[in-house]
Amino acid sequence: MISTAVVQVDFHVDLDINKDRCIGCGICVDVCPSNIWFLDENKKAYPREDYEQDCFICHACAVSCPVGAIVVREEVWERE
Ligand code: SF4
Ligand code: SF4
């Protein structure tokens, strides 16, 4: 007999953007599957305010940024 356990987790994610490094290429805007990134009037990337509810923590934005301007910090824990 196979038994399976379902573990429920909570998570928290922080998206940090170093605007001094950002060159406004728009790659993060294009690669994010949740349409979280936008460019402001100065061509600097910023995440929308409600990103935490939609971010998959896939890290695509961070690994695709050519200048390393984005850091994705995640914290995952099992639900009590
Ligand atoms: S980690 Fe993934 S889902 Fe989250 S902002 Fe970056 S590209 Fe989008
Ligand atoms: S991929 Fe990096 S450099 Fe390009 S717009 Fe996004 S944060 Fe800026």
Domain count, please report it.
Answer: 1
Name the shape in a single word.
elongated
What percentage of the residues does DSSP assign to strands (E)? 25-35%
Strand order in space, largest sheet: 1-4
The computed structural class is alpha+beta
Q: Order of SSEs, N→C?
A: EHEEHHE
* Distance, first to last CA: 27 Å
Poorly predicted sequence stretches spanning 5 or more consecutive residues: none
Radius of gyration: 16 Å
Give the CATH topology. Alpha-Beta Plaits
Largest sheet geometry: 2 strands, antiparallel
Listed once per kind, the bound small molecules are: iron/sulfur cluster
Instruction: Tell me roughly what share of residues is in helical segments.
Output: 10-25%
Mean pLDDT: 93
How would you portray this structure in words?
- By secondary structure, the chain is an alpha+beta fold.
- It has a single domain, classed as Alpha-Beta Plaits.
- Helix content is 18%, strand content 30%.
- It has three helices and four strands.
- It has a two-stranded antiparallel sheet with strand order 1-4. Strands 2-3 form a two-stranded antiparallel ribbon.
- A hairpin with a 5-residue loop joins strand 2 and strand 3.
- It is elongated, with a radius of gyration of 16 Å.
- The two termini are 27 Å apart.
- The mean pLDDT is 93.
- One iron/sulfur cluster (SF4) binds next to helix 1.
